[in-house]
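Lab notebook: predicted structure, single chain.

Context: the supervisor wants predicted structures on file for every construct in the current expression panel, including those that have not yet been purified. This is the next one on the list. No modifications to the sequence; it matches the entry in the shared construct table.
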Amino acid sequence: MSGIRQRILENMQRFSRAMIGAVLFLPVIGLILALSSVLTNPTLISETSFLHYLGQLLGDTFWPLFSNLGLLFCVGISYGLAKDKKTEVTLVAVMCFIMFLGANHSWLEYTHQVAGKINDEYYGTGQTELLGFVVVDMGVFLGIILGCTIAWVHNKVSTIALPGALSMYGGAKLTLVAMTPVIVFYAIAFTWIWPFMTHGITALTGFMKNAGVAGVFVYGFFEKFLIPTGLHHFVWSPFQLTPIGGTLNVDGQTVAGSQAIFLAYMRHPDLTPLMNEALRFSQQGMTTIFGLSGAALAFYHTAKPEKKMLAKAVLLPAIITSILTGITEPIEFTFLFISPLLWFIHALLTAASQAICDIFSVRPWGASGLIEFIIYNLPLPVSLTRWPLYVIIGIGQFAVYYVIFRTLILKLNLKTPGREDDEDVKLYNKQDYRKKINKHADKNGLVANDIINGLGGKANIISVDNCFTRLRVALHNPDIVDEAQLKNTGANGVIRSGNEVQVIYGVSVGQVRSHVDTWLENN
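Prediction complete. Output recorded below exactly as produced.
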């Protein structure tokens, strides 16, 4: 039984490493989008200025990345889980992802299931448009499922040697051939399976609208809890984009959905003394500004002393992105797969704050980050939206998140950023750090050679990966690792777990990984 648990643990660790490859890029993307939002804010920068155009250019350049997270995860996970031929498997992953889109769209057309747009969007239809194809909306789960499947198939077939003239179809090309029937099967099966999962979500909307504060709480919980699946669109989109959220007659025209209703109030702030009740379902942005900031502070304060600077390097750009733009993936994905319990608590606290807003009739437009909050709400009368109360509730949310997250992390010893189990970690001051960097800066090839020897030689290495701070190496025989030599290469510590060795290099681990990969390819 212990052997089964060990294999399960090893597989979970491999999956976590593969996931982190894509997650590492999200804070960078988010920060650039935050800059884009600032530059395109007409209250700060004239729409006719070059800076405004530059902001728009940056947004148009980077927003497509967030619109295609499934593809990024498909490539990142297949790369991380593949045992060899990693460069080739990433190319296969791109092809398989596009193949799925084409096959799924073709099947939807063949069965006459392609959805029509609602308010010029596919939100709420169960489908979405990716790379020009209308497909079943599976969110990042499409990339996760495909990435895991591709890596598994690749590890099984890529080493098979085909005879004679067929030999040219071996290796990664055989992975593509083997994946073809799998892709077709997935494309057809998910057309039926995924919508079935969304039926329950659709049924919830009626309850949410008619159940008062309880309905708002349920809305807030599922809108947050279902984000990893992509099914949260079925929670918020009916309220923000369709008559389910409410209707309002303005200048002889009927507008539907909370977003359209709020925009109508921006044109006619005297429609009613208090904002329409449709805005009860548009307060989820409070968490992006206040709640996650409290969580990030808890992560930082509970990090081990020697890892606080590393935790700050990960958390700071992620939380700035969340606060300014409402893009939460960078900060949420740092703990989603580390501790599902914290994600569950996160969803509960998000729901509670929205319910409190409803109790006190607080109805600003709070669907996204700080920039959007300011642009939408400050031009309107305070009495209409009661946005100062929103800020007060948000401050309380910040404190609650901090206290609860900090308590759970310490009581349950959760391995949040900066709390991983390290052994023999030495504290370095700035002078020590500079000496260590200078010592190895000009000897990349030599250091890589020393690292390989410290790991038992090239023949002992199965695969090399890295996370935020560690070089993670799967070995045939971890007993022959020379920890002293690895520490002489600049490592702060070495951790053994089964046949895996984790060598801690800090935030420079990306450069170390690059040097090691180059050495392995050339020797």
